[in-house]
Amino acid sequence: MDEFFHMGGYAFYVWSAYGAAFAVIVALVWQSVADYRAQTRLAETLEKAAGGRVRRAAHREHETGEDAS
Amino acid sequence: MAAMNSLTALQRFHAYANPARFMALSARLVAPLWILSVLVIGAGLWFALFDSPPDYQQGETVRIMYVHVPSAWLAMFGYGVMAFASAVGLVFRHPLSDVCAKSAAPIGAGFTFLALLTGSLWGQPMWGTWWEWDARMTSVLILFFLYLGYIALWATIEEPVRAARAAAVLALVGAINIPIIRYSVVWWNTLHQPASVFRMDGPSIAPAMLLPLGLMGVGFTLLFITLLLVRMRAEVMRRRVRNLRLATAGAAAEG
Fold this sequence. Notes:
The complex is a heterodimer of chains A (69) and B (255). By secondary structure, chain A is mainly alpha-helical. Chain A has helices spanning 2-6, 11-49, 53-64. Chain A is rod-shaped and about 65 Å long. The relative contact order of chain A is 0.06. The two termini of chain B are 32 Å apart. At the A-B interface, helix 2 and helix 3 of A face helix 1, helix 2, helix 3 and helix 7 of B.
């Protein structure tokens, strides 16, 4: 096991490369998922706050292709 | 006038119908793709670290290849996705292609950074230098700056349609760098070694090393696609938030 972590004397280079890859991937995953959750929550809050009026308007526009305003 | 009306109707159709369909489809794909990415990368890591031989010249440092090469592939693949989606966005005015291009950029930038960093960590013990201004390394550094410039351009223009147009032009102009990176090791006498996997005469790399490299390559690509879908979903929601805010502000101004 010691030999494995030693990496033939190149431990610093090999484990730094794998550590950096892990860190960058975790950061990308965390940031992407957090952003998706935050935006979804925000959209739900705004839709509720609009009392369904905006949503109904958007829905009507979607169905008829006409401008809701 | 009639043509203009039909164009805006088409744009309106795109704006509503397609993101809705995309959201429904991607919602079902995201979870299985996460699982598949973890499984394939997990298998790749096992072979990369435990069940593949050290190189007869490079010793254990060859294991850096299993993160360096997939990262470099994705650095270029990510730019390809971004440039292609930008072209589609410019020609067909399809909002989802703008969303796709914008979402690919930070992932591509992340993997380009990894390719540069792991390359440096491999170069120091094997070539005796962290960095060399040779054609391959310089062109990949330019790729990294292109990604950063593209992200910055999106951040500086408030209105999404205008931002998408400007960013798409930058992405397409920068696409000239991709063949330069690919052939830099052929056209110039570089410190970096030439391609050993995607060659006309087949891979020149040992099969025991090709297996972990292939698994890591596929696993990283699956992860890229998963991240791209999640980021695109976030971007669609961000635009919904923006539209809701504009609609609320408009209603308040009228009332």
